[in-house]
Fold these 2 entries.
Entry 1:
Amino acid sequence: MQEFILDVPTDVVTLAEAVSWAQEKLNQSGSHFIASVNPEICFSARRNSALQKALLAADLKIPDGVGIVLASRLCGGQIRERVTGIDLMEELVALAAAEGKKIFLLGAAEGVAAAAAAKLKERYPPLLVAGTAHGYLPQAQDGELAGSIAASGADLVFVALGSPRQELFVAKYGAASGAKILMVVGGSFDVLSGRLRRAPLLYQRLGLEWFFRLVQQPKRILRVWIMPSFLAAVTQQRLFTGGRKHC
C-alpha cells in the first residue's frame, strides 16, 4: 500500500515489515532498490524530474522522518511509524551477517565507508564485507564503479552519495551492480563510523534527531526550515485535492 506525499509515492510500512521484505528479496533474482522519502526529497523531486523518475522506479520507499508521518496524518493516511534509513540499514547488516550475505559500502568522504565497515564488523563478526569506496569519484566513473561492485559479489549495497546522485546511481546502475538490494542511506556512514554521534533514544522517540544533528552540524540550519514549508505545501495540496490521501 502506498500514499503520495507531494506526488512522491511512499510505502505504508513498518521497520519490521521492511526487513521482512528485504529478506525475501535477498533470496530472489534481480536487483531491488530501497529509497528513503523525507520532506527534502519531496521538494527536490518537484524540481528534478530525473529524481522523481528514480523514486518512482524504487521497489520500496520508506517513510524516513517525522515530517512524512505528520504529512500522512494531515491527509488522513495510515503511515504511523517512521522508518529511518540508518535503522533499516543496521537491521539489514545484522540480517546479512546472520545469513552469510556480502555487503558493500559506497559513499561519504574518503576513509569513512571503510571506518563504518570496520565498526560494523566489530559489532557483527560473521559479517562479510565485499568492499568499500568513497563517494568523491567523478560521476563519469559510475559505470566502472558498478562493475567493481559486481566483481566483488556483494548482495547488499548501501549508497551514501548524497541526493539526488545516490538515487540516480541506483536507478541507472543497480542491475549492473549484480546486487540483490541497493539502498540509499544519506549520512548514515558518518554516524556508523563514529564521525558523528547519533541522537540519544529520547530524541529519536520524540522525532528530534534533526535538532541533535543540527547542534553537531550548524551548517544544516537552512535545511531545518524545510519542515514548515513542507507541511504548508502538504496542507495546501490537501485542500486543493479535497482531502484525499494524495497530498
Entry 2:
Amino acid sequence: MMLQRLQGPRIFVESGKELVHEGQHQHSAYVLCSGWAYTYKGLPDGQRQIIDIQIAGDLLGIRSLLLKTSDQSIVTLTEVEVRKINTERLSDVFRSAPRLALALLWAISRDEAMMVEHLVSLGKRDAIMRTVHMLLELGARAELVGLGTSQGFGCPISQNILADALGITPIHLNRVLRQLRESKLLVFKDGLVTFIDRKRLIESFQMDFAYLNQDIASVKKR
C-alpha cells in the first residue's frame, strides 16, 4: 500500500523524449515500469557523456532528487511507461515503512556501485574490455527482470549511444564488435545481443557481478 502511495499515475512517453533536463528546477524522479532510457551530462562544446542506461524496474533521477537543480538529463530510448515518485511522501516511507525505505536505499546503493564500475571502465579498461563489461552488465540486469536470458537479450541501443556510454567513437566500437564476433564470443546485431560463449567472456574479461547484486552470482555461469 505504501509503495502505491509513493508512486503517481502511469505516464506513457514516446521514445527520444526528455524526462528531465540538466539544470532543471523542481525536477522529478520516476520508476521506470517498462522500456529503456539513458542518463547523460552535456559538455559546453555540445558533446555528452552517457552516465547510465536504465531498463524496466530502475529508478530515474533518484540520485539528484534532493539537489536544487538536476545535474543530469534523462532521455527515453524507447517508448516507456513511468510513474512519478511522490517526493512529499518519502519522509513518511522512511518513518513508517522501514523495509520499503531499505529497498530504496538498496536501489540507490546499486546505482552508485554501477557508477563506480563505469568510472573504472572509463579510466582503466581498454575499449574491448569496457564493451564486454557493459554488455554483460546489461545482460545480467535484463535477465534479473525477465527481459533476457544467459544466451542474450534485446538491446534497443544504437551504436552511437553505446559508444557515448563507453567513451569511444562509433567507428572504434564497430571494430570492437567485429573482433568479438570473429572471436565467436558475442554478436550485437539488429537490436539483439547474443552471447556465443558467455562463460569465456566472463573469464577472459574478468567480469565480477557482485557489484550488481549478491544474488546474481547464481546466474553468473549458466
